[in-house]
Amino acid sequence: MPDNTDRDAALAMFAAIQQRAAAAGITLRQPPAEPDSCCGRGCNGCVWEGWYEAVDYWREEALLKLGG
Prior knowledge:
The chain is mostly helical. Helix content is 54%, strand content 0%. The chain has 2 helices and no strands. Helix 1 (7-24) packs parallel to helix 2 (47-65). The longest helix is centred in the C-terminal third of the chain and has 19 residues, at 47-65.
């Protein structure tokens, strides 16, 4: 994923990888759920930072299952 802080890009990436996995008959775990507890104050360690890290991890693991 080129920009790891773009929600729309992350959601599009989830859809693309899940579609690819379905076509290959491979079951993936669900992508990380979006946070619902952000206060919007730009906190250090914001829940969105953790989500984007989880997004990257999900992507890496999914691509490993898909063989690249």
